[in-house]
Amino acid sequence: MKTLSAVATAVLLSAATSLCAQDTLAPLLTFSGYVEPYYAYDFNEPTDGNRPPFLYSFNRHNEFNVNLGMLKANYSARRLRANAALAAGTYMNANYAAEPGVLQNIYEMNAGIKISNNSDLWVDGGIFTSHIGFESAIGKDCRALTRSMVAENTPYYEAGARITYNTPNGQWLLSGLVLNGWQRIQRVQGNSLPSFGTQVQWRPNARTLLNYSTFIGTDKPDSTRQMRYHNNLYGVFQLSDRWELTASFDLGLEEKSPENSDLNLWYTPVVIVRYAPTDKDAVALRFEYFSDENGVIINTGTPNGFGVTGVSINYDRALLPNALWRVEGRLLNSADDAIFIRDGNAVNANFCLTTSIAVSF
Predict the structure, then answer these.
(1) Which one, of 249, 251, 259, 269, lies nearest residue 226 by Cα?
(2) What is the pLDDT of residue 25?
(3) HEC string for 80-145
(4) Nearest to 187 by CA among 216, 149, 218, 215
(5) What are the distances in angstroms from CA 35 to CA 59, 197, 312?
(6) Tens digit of pLDDT per residue, the chain (361 long)?
(7) Cα separations (Å) of 11 from 114, 314, 321?
């Protein structure tokens, strides 16, 4: 019996053969890049230079480094599209550590075929940015310099196949995905079960975006399989020309053990308020909370598990149309358990100042 990946590949090749001849639009090949150097100072002064282990972006203390440097090629035609992006930086080192060899430097690599003459319906396969959450590794597209705790602990990238439909009026996007796992390019050794995802976006007007994404699957071998169910709901609201509100809520569930179908639960709300007094300046205030009492996603080994509140304030200054200077102060506080380390002792709080320059070209 063919595997799902083999079937998906066959569908893509068959559709490509039949549709290439009909692709009359002149193809367009473009190249772009992104570089974001940064400096972060963690006031807990970690001796190994690493910030808390549940943070995967801007995670080096007291050194000048690059979070993400990327080069990308994009091909687009009437019925075909493709993206290939290679990257390096501390973001790649932390997030792709489990991937083998050259896969550790693939930020994005995918190809898609439009399979309908009359509808905006596409099938894509390869490595994509995640369908979960409102943040990505591209800092200039995010409202705060550092990523929220929920962004750091849900997939940034995924590999598999997806089908996407956009309505003619541009208000709805519907997508279904078959994936190799929870932030995986190469599937976990011994896992024969693909994961699945869905995404629904609604844009009722130019100032409002609502999104609901899901993940169903497992990130463990068949012998220790525990099913995971993740829900991500967020909205972006342009309240006026100067004010913007982003609000999200994630709820995750995972089986307690292969023999026990009872579920562990984690959840995290995030609110970001952004004010842009001028066309070149913006201030963003972020409030967030991450609760994972049973240590499914973030295991502290402490009696009350992970329960951290975060507050950050971010200032952006557009130095040039393609260059953004950013500075952020961020406080994380664990009320119940001392999960951070300072001078060799467990403490309840962590404060960090970070600055970066995001350049796109």
Answers:
(1) 259
(2) 62
(3) EEEEEEEEECHHHHHHCCCCCHHHHHEEEEEEEEECCCCCEEEEEEEEEECCCCCCCCCHHHCCCC
(4) 218
(5) 16, 30, 23
(6) 334 344 444 444 444 444 444 444 678 999 999 999 999 999 999 999 999 999 999 999 999 999 999 999 999 999 999 999 999 999 999 999 999 999 999 999 999 999 999 999 999 999 999 999 999 999 999 999 999 999 999 999 999 999 999 999 999 999 999 999 999 999 999 999 999 999 999 999 999 999 999 999 999 999 999 999 999 999 999 999 999 999 999 999 999 999 888 999 999 999 999 999 999 999 999 999 999 999 999 999 999 999 999 999 999 999 999 999 999 999 999 999 999 999 999 999 999 999 999 999 9
(7) 12, 46, 42
Tokens standing for 23? 């692709």
Could you give the CA distance from residue 56 to residue 134 in angstroms, rounded to a whole number? 16
Q: Is 26 in a helix, a strand, or coil?
A: coil
Of 270, 302, 268, 298, nearest in space to 284 by CA: 270
E strand intervals along the chain: 28-42, 64-76, 80-88, 106-114, 120-129, 157-166, 172-179, 195-205, 208-217, 228-238, 243-257, 260-275, 281-292, 306-320, 323-334, 340-342, 345-347, 349-360
Distance of CA 35 to the CA centre of its chain: 18
Supply 324's token pair. Answer: 């953004």
Distances in whole angstroms, Cα of residue 157 to Cα of each of 39, 154, 215: 24, 9, 13
Report H helices in the chain.
4-19, 90-95, 149-152
Q: Contact at 8 Å (CB) between 331 and 350? A: yes
Longest CA span, the chain: 67
Q: What angle is formed at CA 147 by the lines to CA 142 and CA 153, rounded to 5 degrees? A: 130
Strand 260-275 with 243-257, pairing: antiparallel
Phi, psi of 314, deg, nearest 5:
-130, 140
Token duo for residue 78: 């009437």
